Amino acid sequence: MTHPTADSVADTLAALRDTTPLVQSLTNIVSANFVTNVLLAAGASNAHIDNAHEAAGFAAIAGGVLINLGTPDDGTAEAFTLAADGAVAAGTPWVLDPVGVGGLPWRTGLAADLLKKSPTAIRGNGSEIIALAGLGNSTRGVDSASDSGDAVPAAVSLLDQAEAVSASGPVDYIVGRSTDGPIGVTVSGGSPLLTKVTATGCSLGGLVAAYLAVASTPLLGLTAAHAHVAVASELAEHNSSGPGSFAVAYLDALASVTPDDLRTQARIERLDV
């Protein structure tokens, strides 16, 4: 496996736009609408199928599946399990977004059970990745109290279960499996206003699911999603005056960013892991 580059990320965006992959999102009540809008703006599509009757069947026909632990209850927890099983059985890539893991025992146990089902990719903040790996607990609600770079050892350890893992922050740290051992990259840039608008992280998880449907490797799909967000959010910040206008400008920017924009503006560097 080769390291993702700005060129390969740009080609993956072109593939996303050419195919319009359908994502099944099992996400939280706070983020459902924004996740859908982000996917539509970026060039994908979304179906919010999170009931136990349909979760497994839809995972078999979706291009990618997002399982987000933001607001779980008994019903959605059952649907999470069924969707993960359905995705694995059908060969559908799926993403685990372990929101709030570490601070709350029930959801932490739920995440541990889902981890056993071999997610294709895991996307979280630094604290969530560290807690999911069982290497500490610095989660503050759904926010991170750890630097994303501090989560790299935890992310590498999670490659025993997942094919690629990212820890989000001012710099995103992304690692993946290869035949020669773990390899990684960083994606820098982006806007601090991302942290002032709800569901930007959750929608990144949905975007990862979309990119996994078209990328040649999970590491490339995960990197492409992060790079798309970084470049689009910088453009949105330039065209906004605060969090409210940023949210609108961000959707516009996700749609307007081109493969050539990613080729010239994405800041991707190799990471020693």
Automatic annotation (TrEMBL):
Cofactor(s) demanded: Mg(2+)
Family to which the UniProt record says this protein belongs: Belongs to the Thz kinase family.
SUPFAM superfamilies found in the cross-reference section: Ribokinase-like
Annotated residues for binding of ATP: 123, 168
Enzyme Commission code: 2.7.1.50
Swiss-Prot/TrEMBL GO biological process terms: thiamine biosynthetic process; thiamine diphosphate biosynthetic process
Keywords of this entry: ATP-binding, Kinase, Magnesium, Metal-binding, Nucleotide-binding, Thiamine biosynthesis, Transferase
Signal peptide (from-to): none
Function comment: Catalyzes the phosphorylation of the hydroxyl group of 4-methyl-5-beta-hydroxyethylthiazole (THZ).
A single GO molecular function term of this UniProt record: magnesium ion binding
Catalytic activity: 5-(2-hydroxyethyl)-4-methylthiazole + ATP = 4-methyl-5-(2-phosphooxyethyl)-thiazole + ADP + H(+)
NCBIfam families referenced in this protein's UniProt entry, alphabetically: PRK09355.1 (NF006830)
Residues where substrate binds: 199
Pathway membership: Cofactor biosynthesis; thiamine diphosphate biosynthesis; 4-methyl-5-(2-phosphoethyl)-thiazole from 5-(2-hydroxyethyl)-4-methylthiazole: step 1/1
Gene that this sequence comes from: thiM
Descriptive protein name: Hydroxyethylthiazole kinase
